[in-house]
Amino acid sequence: MTSTDARTDPDCLFCRIVAGELPADVVATSERSIAFRDIDPQAPVHVLVVPRDHHGDIAQLAAADPELLSDVVALADEVAGDQADGQFRLIFNSGPRAGQSVFHVHGHVIAGAELGWTPA
Ligand code: AMP
Protein backbone atom coordinates (compact mmCIF):
# COMPACT_ATOMS: atom_id res chain seq x y z
CA MET A 1 0.00 0.00 0.00
CA THR A 2 1.23 3.51 -0.72
CA SER A 3 0.26 6.57 1.25
CA THR A 4 -2.31 7.42 -1.41
CA ASP A 5 -4.11 4.08 -1.13
CA ALA A 6 -7.28 3.83 0.87
CA ARG A 7 -6.37 1.86 3.97
CA THR A 8 -8.95 -0.83 3.43
CA ASP A 9 -8.91 -4.43 2.20
CA PRO A 10 -12.11 -5.79 0.64
CA ASP A 11 -11.19 -9.31 1.75
CA CYS A 12 -10.65 -8.33 5.40
CA LEU A 13 -13.37 -9.30 7.90
CA PHE A 14 -12.85 -6.25 10.10
CA CYS A 15 -12.67 -3.84 7.13
CA ARG A 16 -16.05 -5.20 6.11
CA ILE A 17 -17.43 -4.62 9.63
CA VAL A 18 -15.98 -1.07 9.59
CA ALA A 19 -17.68 -0.48 6.23
CA GLY A 20 -21.03 -1.72 7.56
CA GLU A 21 -21.10 -4.64 5.14
CA LEU A 22 -21.18 -7.18 7.98
CA PRO A 23 -23.07 -6.82 11.28
CA ALA A 24 -21.42 -6.22 14.62
CA ASP A 25 -22.56 -5.29 18.12
CA VAL A 26 -20.93 -1.87 18.19
CA VAL A 27 -20.57 -0.39 21.68
CA ALA A 28 -18.49 2.73 21.00
CA THR A 29 -16.92 4.66 18.16
CA SER A 30 -14.46 7.43 17.54
CA GLU A 31 -13.77 9.21 14.31
CA ARG A 32 -10.97 6.76 13.52
CA SER A 33 -11.82 3.57 15.44
CA ILE A 34 -14.74 1.35 16.37
CA ALA A 35 -15.39 -1.03 19.25
CA PHE A 36 -17.67 -4.05 19.02
CA ARG A 37 -18.34 -7.13 21.13
CA ASP A 38 -16.29 -10.23 20.41
CA ILE A 39 -18.48 -12.92 18.86
CA ASP A 40 -16.96 -15.52 21.24
CA PRO A 41 -16.52 -13.66 24.54
CA GLN A 42 -13.93 -14.93 27.01
CA ALA A 43 -14.87 -12.55 29.86
CA PRO A 44 -17.95 -10.62 31.06
CA VAL A 45 -16.71 -7.72 28.95
CA HIS A 46 -14.86 -8.74 25.81
CA VAL A 47 -14.81 -5.99 23.21
CA LEU A 48 -12.58 -5.58 20.17
CA VAL A 49 -11.23 -2.10 19.47
CA VAL A 50 -10.37 -1.71 15.80
CA PRO A 51 -8.89 1.18 13.84
CA ARG A 52 -10.99 1.95 10.79
CA ASP A 53 -7.84 1.93 8.63
CA HIS A 54 -6.38 -1.45 7.77
CA HIS A 55 -3.07 -2.28 9.43
CA GLY A 56 -1.98 -5.87 9.96
CA ASP A 57 -0.78 -5.82 13.55
CA ILE A 58 0.10 -3.49 16.39
CA ALA A 59 3.73 -3.03 15.35
CA GLN A 60 2.72 -2.07 11.82
CA LEU A 61 0.12 0.34 13.19
CA ALA A 62 2.59 1.91 15.64
CA ALA A 63 5.14 2.42 12.87
CA ALA A 64 2.68 3.79 10.31
CA ASP A 65 0.34 5.88 12.44
CA PRO A 66 1.12 6.22 16.16
CA GLU A 67 -1.71 8.72 16.62
CA LEU A 68 -4.15 6.08 15.45
CA LEU A 69 -2.74 3.59 17.97
CA SER A 70 -3.30 6.22 20.63
CA ASP A 71 -6.89 6.59 19.43
CA VAL A 72 -7.41 2.82 19.76
CA VAL A 73 -6.10 2.88 23.34
CA ALA A 74 -8.29 5.85 24.25
CA LEU A 75 -11.37 4.09 22.88
CA ALA A 76 -10.47 0.96 24.85
CA ASP A 77 -10.32 3.07 28.01
CA GLU A 78 -13.71 4.59 27.18
CA VAL A 79 -15.24 1.13 26.64
CA ALA A 80 -13.86 -0.15 29.94
CA GLY A 81 -15.35 2.85 31.72
CA ASP A 82 -18.72 2.40 30.06
CA GLN A 83 -18.95 -1.38 30.26
CA ALA A 84 -17.09 -2.11 33.51
CA ASP A 85 -15.28 -0.31 36.31
CA GLY A 86 -12.64 1.25 34.11
CA GLN A 87 -10.06 -1.43 34.84
CA PHE A 88 -9.15 -3.58 31.91
CA ARG A 89 -6.64 -5.74 30.13
CA LEU A 90 -5.81 -4.78 26.54
CA ILE A 91 -4.41 -7.63 24.45
CA PHE A 92 -3.00 -7.39 20.94
CA ASN A 93 -2.20 -10.81 19.55
CA SER A 94 0.52 -10.37 16.94
CA GLY A 95 1.14 -13.27 14.59
CA PRO A 96 -0.54 -16.67 14.28
CA ARG A 97 1.63 -18.34 16.92
CA ALA A 98 0.50 -15.64 19.35
CA GLY A 99 -3.12 -16.40 18.55
CA GLN A 100 -3.85 -13.76 15.93
CA SER A 101 -6.53 -15.02 13.56
CA VAL A 102 -7.79 -11.75 12.02
CA PHE A 103 -5.00 -9.78 10.38
CA HIS A 104 -6.45 -6.33 10.89
CA VAL A 105 -5.02 -5.00 14.13
CA HIS A 106 -7.42 -5.10 17.07
CA GLY A 107 -7.14 -4.81 20.81
CA HIS A 108 -9.12 -7.17 23.00
CA VAL A 109 -10.61 -5.20 25.91
CA ILE A 110 -11.05 -7.76 28.70
CA ALA A 111 -12.83 -6.51 31.81
CA GLY A 112 -15.63 -7.05 34.27
CA ALA A 113 -13.97 -9.76 36.37
CA GLU A 114 -10.97 -10.42 38.57
CA LEU A 115 -8.34 -11.31 36.00
CA GLY A 116 -5.73 -13.92 36.75
CA TRP A 117 -2.27 -13.91 35.23
CA THR A 118 -3.21 -16.04 32.22
CA PRO A 119 -4.98 -13.97 29.57
CA ALA A 120 -8.54 -15.09 29.05
P1 AMP B 1 -7.42 -12.75 17.32
O1 AMP B 1 -7.48 -14.25 17.45
O2 AMP B 1 -6.58 -12.06 18.35
O3 AMP B 1 -7.06 -12.35 15.89
O4 AMP B 1 -8.87 -12.21 17.61
C1 AMP B 1 -9.91 -12.30 16.67
C2 AMP B 1 -11.18 -12.24 17.43
O5 AMP B 1 -12.21 -11.89 16.55
C3 AMP B 1 -11.58 -13.56 18.10
O6 AMP B 1 -11.66 -13.37 19.51
C4 AMP B 1 -12.94 -13.87 17.48
O7 AMP B 1 -13.84 -14.44 18.41
C5 AMP B 1 -13.38 -12.52 17.00
N1 AMP B 1 -14.31 -12.51 15.88
C6 AMP B 1 -14.23 -13.22 14.74
N2 AMP B 1 -15.23 -12.89 13.91
C7 AMP B 1 -15.96 -11.94 14.55
C8 AMP B 1 -17.14 -11.21 14.21
N3 AMP B 1 -17.77 -11.37 13.05
N4 AMP B 1 -17.62 -10.34 15.12
C9 AMP B 1 -17.00 -10.16 16.32
N5 AMP B 1 -15.88 -10.82 16.68
C10 AMP B 1 -15.37 -11.70 15.81
UniProtKB/TrEMBL annotation:
Pfam families: HIT. PROSITE patterns: HIT_2. GO terms for molecular function: hydrolase activity. Keywords: Hydrolase. The keyword Nucleus does not apply. Residues 13-120 form the HIT domain. It comes from the Bacteria. The active site is at H106. The keyword Hydrolase applies. A motif (Histidine triad motif) lies at residues 104-108. SUPFAM superfamilies: HIT-like. This is HIT family hydrolase. It comes from Cellulosimicrobium cellulans F16. The lineage of its organism: Bacteria, Bacillati, Actinomycetota, Actinomycetes, Micrococcales.
